[in-house]
Design a protein that fits this description.
InterPro entries: 6-blade_b-propeller_TolB-like, TRIM-NHL_E3_ligases. The chain is built from no helices and 24 strands. By secondary structure, it is mainly β.
């Protein structure tokens, strides 16, 4: 990788490709907690845990979940769905003790209430399905009405250590649980983006295709609303149950839905297939996935369509994914980064299109 393509706002950059035996394939989820690194190796249907943040290009994981060993990569481990398997895992969260994984294509969320200690360890709890042997969307299959207990492509998960938020992407909503569930098939306590638990149709002021959700210590919430190329911010997460977002990043109003605001090129205000965001210090990092860049807002935007302060991954705000640097390959720079996580001033990027992580230090 040409690390100069990341720009002047980061330093000490290196790439990490996971296990040298079977490296990452399109990793979509990354999270860091207590110096532990958690990666959803989405294309190979597994989750990796490293007990220390790796510092070299390859390092064998301490734990692999979803497969019995490092060499296995099949959907649901090549068999039927169970408490030990995964199918297209995406969102991931941990505090170094509890682990929560969005097992997206099994239409469920898996919870380990103590950090796994062995390969293929069974999950303790399943959310979104009545048992570990079920994996249909909304339990009964495509077209079934959602409920407070069901899920459909849950790509994003987040917790503050007490509550749980699930981006129930396929049902176009976010489910909220007062406590991290300890029993299977737990019903959500509240819903964000819908008037009730059975509605799937949407209005433009609601999350249309919520892919990730994050809440900071100040109780501010950001949702990556992929289909409308925007991020939605609530100044108080409690307000999300009863009112539209306070601020839109990437669009001027709730009805605007243009990819790069219908421009030929990106700008300091536009987004293209945004899949994640991350609070950092007093500001916000936004994964502008389709433009293969990360936007930095030095302070949390207070008005719609705010201009980003800086860009990571491109030489300027007007350069997107398709340019001369990527004409004959993408590995020289970021390509379709799906998720990000921070620890201190360190930024970990799931550089999904290049099948690797990029780890770097922020200079902000």
């Amino acid at each position: 990788m040409n690390f100069e393509t990341l720009g002047p706002n980061v330093t000490n950059s290196y790439i990490f490709k996971g296990s040298e035996q079977t490296p990452f394939l399109a990793p979509r989820g990354v999270f860091v907690a207590n110096n532990h690194l958690f990666v959803s190796d989405t294309g190979r249907n597994r989750v990796f845990i490293w007990k220390q943040l790796p510092t070299s290009e390859y390092q064998e994981p301490d734990i692999v979940l979803g497969q019995s060993n490092i060499s296995e990569t099949g959907r649901n481990s090549g068999g039927l769905v169970s408490e030990n398997t995964l199918h297209y895992p995406s969102g991931i969260w941990s505090d170094g003790r509890v682990l929560i994984v969005g097992d997206a294509w099994n239409h469920r969320v898996l919870i380990w209430h103590t950090l796994p200690t062995k390969n293929g360890q069974a999950a303790d709890v399943v959310v979104g399905q009545p048992d570990f042997r079920s994996n249909q969307p909304n339990v009964k299959g495509i077209g079934n009405t959602p409920s407070a207990q069901t899920l459909n492509w849950p790509y994003g998960v987040f917790s503050d250590g007490n509550h749980l938020w699930i981006a129930d992407t396929g049902n176009r909503r976010i489910l909220f649980y007062e406590d991290i569930p300890k029993t299977n098939y737990k019903a959500a306590d509240k819903v964000i983006g819908k008037p009730d638990f059975t509605t799937r149709d949407y209005e433009n002021h609601e999350p249309i295709w919520p892919y990730s959700v994050k809440v900071n210590a100040n109780k501010q919430m950001v949702v990556a609303d992929t289909q409308f190329y925007r991020n939605l911010i609530w100044n108080n997460a409690e307000d999300a149950f009863s009112k539209p977002a306070d601020v839109i990043v990437g669009q001027a109003n709730f009805d605007a839905c243009g990819q790069n605001q219908f421009g030929l090129f990106p700008s300091s205000k536009s987004l293209n297939w945004t899949y994640d965001a991350c609070f950092y210090k007093d500001g916000l990092l936004v994964n502008d996935t389709g433009n293969s860049r990360i936007l930095w807002f030095e302070t949390l935007p207070k008005d719609n369509n705010a201009e980003a302060t800086a860009v990571i991954g491109k030489r300027d705000f007007k350069t997107g994914s398709e340019n001369k640097e990527t004409l004959h390959g993408t590995s020289s720079s970021l390509y379709w980064p799906f998720s990000i996580s921070t620890q201190g001033n360190k930024l970990i990027i799931a550089d999904t299109g290049n099948h690797r992580l990029v780890i770097t230090d922020l200079k902000f």
